Amino acid sequence: MTYPHHITIICLPDQPKCRIDKFITERITEGSYSRSRIKTLIQEGHFSCDGRTLDDPSVSVKPGCSYQLTIPAVIDDIPQAEDIKLDILHEDNDLIIINKPAGLVVHPAPGSRNGTLVNALLHHCGRSLTGIGGVARPGIVHRLDKYTSGVMVAAKSQEAHHGLSTLFAKHRIHRKYEALCWGVPSEMTGTIDAPLGRHSVDRKKQTIRENGRSAITHYRVIKLFPPFGCHIECSLETGRTHQIRVHLTSIGHSIIGDAVYGRPQRVAQMPDKISRQALATIRAFDRQALHASELGFVHPVTKQELEFKAPFPDDLKNLHTILEQAVWERGHTNY
After folding, report:
1. Which residues of the chain carry a pLDDT beneath 50?
2. What distance in Å separates the CA atoms of residue 220 and residue 236, rounded to the nearest whole number?
3. Model-level pTM?
4. Which positions ≥6 away from 4 have C-beta within 8 Å?
5. DSSP string computed for 224-292
6. What residues are labeled active site?
């Protein structure tokens, strides 16, 4: 069998009502898949109905519809230790805080089996880490997107893993992010309360959906670069996948360099208002200009209050400087 493997099931018009995960499990004849495995595949976005992604395994089957389940390739459950340099902000017997660089994937996945943060942690902490929180993602309690930089915590003991997971689940983690965005907001502070769910067509994307999971982002504008940009600080009540990126795009201020949710056409209409060279440099920025700048929580073992900060990395510092210079140039030169 080659992977990814696609299984198509046509639902007959007289099909009785039942849950979709139960229906699919009963009709798969290729291989041996438990209902829990099918449920997980659906929740991870590997399932579609008439070409539209469906990620809720509890919905009822629809007579006459065509369903497709994609079986992804199996990944080795045990990642290998790799000598990858880490920027460590703090470490004790139970946890480690790192300043993740942009470009570093957090845990192994299809297309990124090696060179991840997990591989680096296994080398730094030793093989004992493999038993912390499961062998596939040892020590990981949250993640940052590949091209998002900044502060992350990982567990080194089961007690810390359980405690940190509980803090994240109960939203008792202080997280602050900073982003360089397109456009100038009309409000200097605000709250975006918009539920998120998987995109109906592109399973790798998130989108605002009425039936999605609650997602709340508070933002504050730190600095304006009129008329084309701003520096925004975000704090989270929830931590959904791509939350800040989708929320900021929804209010018309997508993050500079965001190839998935960005809207570069917003500045393509402004060549007369900004230096062409500066505009070209900003538009060529090759990752989302998003940085996890602060992380605070109560240590799950020692109960000590901890707070960690990471300043902008060099690429974001340079981009910030270019935005400032472009504003100055606009005020002193006619193009």
Report:
1. 265-268, 271, 332-335
2. 12
3. 0.77
4. 70, 71, 72, 73
5. EETTTEEEEEEEESS--TTHHHHHHHHTT-PBTT-TTT--THHHHT-TTTS-HHHHHHHHT--S--EEE
6. 145
CATH T-level fold of 174-296+320-332: Pseudouridine synthase (3.30.2350)
Residue 214, both tokens: 């609650």
Tokens 């039936």 belong to 211
Phi-psi region of 234 (alpha: psi -120 to 50; beta: other; left: phi over 0): beta
pLDDT at 299: 98
> DSSP per residue over 42-76, as a string?
HHTT-EEETTEE---TTSBP-TT-EEEEEEPPPPP
Any idea where the domains of the chain sit in the sequence?
5-71, 88-169, 174-296+320-332
For 28, counting Cβ atoms within 10 Å of its Cβ (0-12 exposed, 13-18 middle, 19+ buried), the class is: middle
Topology match between the domains 88-169 and 174-296+320-332: yes
Please tell me the distance from the alpha carbon of residue 187 to that of residue 190, in angstroms, as a whole number: 7
Write b or e for each residue in 249-261: b if 16 or more Cβ atoms lie within 10 A of its Cβ, otherwise e: bbbebbbbbbebb
Token pair belonging to 68: 């497709």
For domain 5-71, give the CATH number: 3.10.290.10
pLDDT for 34: 81
Is 3.30.2350.10 the CATH number for 88-169?
yes
Token pair recorded at residue 197:
């769910």
Amino acid 266: pLDDT = 47
**Total length of the chain:** 335
Note the pLDDT of residue 333.
43
Please tell me the predicted confidence (pLDDT) of residue 149.
98
Residue 9's pLDDT is: 92
Are the beta carbons of 319 and 282 closer than 8 angstroms?
Answer: yes
The predicted pLDDT at position 334 comes to: 38
CA angle 78, 80, 82 (to 5 degrees): 155
Question: In this structure, what is the dihedral angle of CA atoms 234, 237, 243, 245, given to the nearest 10 degrees?
Answer: -10
Q: How far is CA 177 from CA 37, 96, 119, 288, in A?
A: 35, 20, 25, 12
Q: pLDDT for 214-225, tens place per residue?
A: 999 999 999 999
**Number of helices followed by number of strands (H, E) in the chain:** 8, 15
